[in-house]
Amino acid sequence: MTLVSSLTDRRRGRRAVRSSSRIPLLIGGAIGAASIAAVAYLLWPTWHVQSAGDPDRTPVTIGDTLFNVPTKAFRVKYQRRSGPQERVDLAFLYPSLNPPERAAHKTAGEIAEFQPIDRIFVSIAAHQETLAPETRLRTIYPRYLAQVAPQTVDGLTMRPFVDGSPYAGEDLFTAEQPELAARCTRDRQTPGMCLSEVRIEGADVTFRFPRQWLNQWRDVASAIARLAAQIHVRG
């Protein structure tokens, strides 16, 4: 009887020792878990995943001239990169001059309908030592202008090019205040379009827009000047 009692007491003692040794471990684990939870709570706002996107502007060098282009303005995907390029093609909404957002999906019927142009297209290319736009305006275009009296409306002068010339079917528009020079095709099955060129250091910048916009030609001239200043990084 005494032996059985002794064995029972020993077992109870071992269980008591085991239980007492586990208590600090449990307490330590609880404290550690609480600490981790507290740190996670404090740091959680900085752990969210940010969506990766293009920067707002992309610097490109064309004809050794630096331009800072709104990334969303690129019309050609492979041109959407920084560094030296031979040419880039851009688009800006008119009259806001903001880069367009991604085009929404359209049905076949919507595509078939005529959609008025709401943007001005801009191409920047190295001029490769070709004649400057102002030189062509002064020395080349006059050779091919029709010998008719120029038409001037609201400060904007229009003169047609002769048939058989390199610019047949086009008219030349010029103004001085503000300055504007544009070659425009005539309205036919498709609306006429205009080209206006500006040389900026080693690059020629070409602006393309609907001829109809010349009804407010001063706004167009202002938009061209603003865009040229917006994208060109002056040294």
UniProtKB/TrEMBL annotation:
The keyword Membrane applies. The keyword Transmembrane applies. Keywords: Membrane, Transmembrane, Transmembrane helix. The chain crosses the membrane at residues 21-44. It comes from the Bacteria. This is Uncharacterized protein. The lineage of its organism: Bacteria, Pseudomonadati, Pseudomonadota, Alphaproteobacteria, Hyphomicrobiales.
